[in-house]
Write a structure and sequence with these properties.
By secondary structure, the chain is α/β, with parallel strands linked by helices. The protein has a single domain, classed as Rossmann fold (3-Layer(aba) Sandwich), CATH 3.40.50.300. Helix content is 30%, strand content 22%. The longest helix is centred in the last third of the chain and has 20 residues. The radius of gyration is 16 Å and the shape is globular. The two termini are 30 Å apart.
């Protein structure tokens, strides 16, 4: 059956909130392939997820950084039949929370990234205007390490807020992020699968990011493959 004019195979036909967990024991049973999204608390992670799933307000957004307090799972099904869970991890670096809460978040995120058997990739979200920051670099290095008993994680870097950069500065910004990210994961003998520029305002990068996720879920991405803008 032919697609409607202007339709994409990655249009999301169904999206819903599945569960929220504040500790590993509260996570639902692993069923579908999962993609984790992580980034600093002010980077626009919730807006990116809403744009990916083509829904307004499905993922809670806030003017106060750090509103995600646990691991939130969403299910999405695209026009071409891809079904997966998009996982919103608590933001880091900028949230005004207690030290104890930040420590518990760190342990929860690390355990999830290392032990979740259905986790296929981590999308590390950075601000295109700021580049790769220290917290981002540390998370990239963590995701590149071996996962005992589980398949290695694919790592995708998504540079948000591309619409806020002048067009002439977009490619240099992505090139700089790509080089910095590759340097971090190379220490663990790994590689960045994709570096994608993204804008929740204009939907720039939505299709390339969905294609990268689809290849990761299908297991067809090569270790050195990169999505170019």
């Amino acid at each position: 059956m032919a697609r409607e004019p202007g339709a994409s195979e990655h249009d999301v036909l169904h999206a819903e909130f599945i569960a929220s967990a504040v500790d590993a024991a509260s996570l639902p049973a692993p069923t579908l392939a999962e993609i984790a999204f992580a980034g600093r608390s002010n980077v626009g992670k919730s807006s990116m997820l809403n744009a990916l799933m083509q829904r307004r307000g499905l993922v809670r957004t806030s003017s106060t950084p750090g509103c995600t307090r646990g691991i939130n799972l969403f299910e999405a099904r695209t026009r071409n039949g891809l079904r997966l869970h998009l996982v919103d991890l608590p933001g880091y670096g900028f949230a005004k929370r207690s030290k104890q809460e930040r420590v518990s978040w760190g342990a929860l995120i690390e355990r999830y990234l290392l032990e979740r058997p259905t986790l296929r990739a981590a999308v590390i979200i950075v601000d295109a205007r700021r580049g790769l920051e220290e917290d981002d670099a540390q998370l990239l290095e963590f995701c590149a390490q071996p996962r005992p008993g589980n398949a290695p994680l694919s790592t995708i870097v998504a540079a948000t807020k591309m619409d806020l950069l002048p067009k002439a500065k977009r490619k240099p910004a992505l090139d700089a992020i790509r080089a910095a990210a590759a340097k971090e994961v190379a220490r663990e003998g790994s590689a960045i699968r994709s570096v994608v520029g993204f804008s929740a305002e204009t939907s720039e990068g939505r299709e390339p990011l969905w294609r990268a996720l689809e290849r990761v879920v299908a297991g067809t991405v090569a270790p050195s493959e990169q999505d170019r803008p």
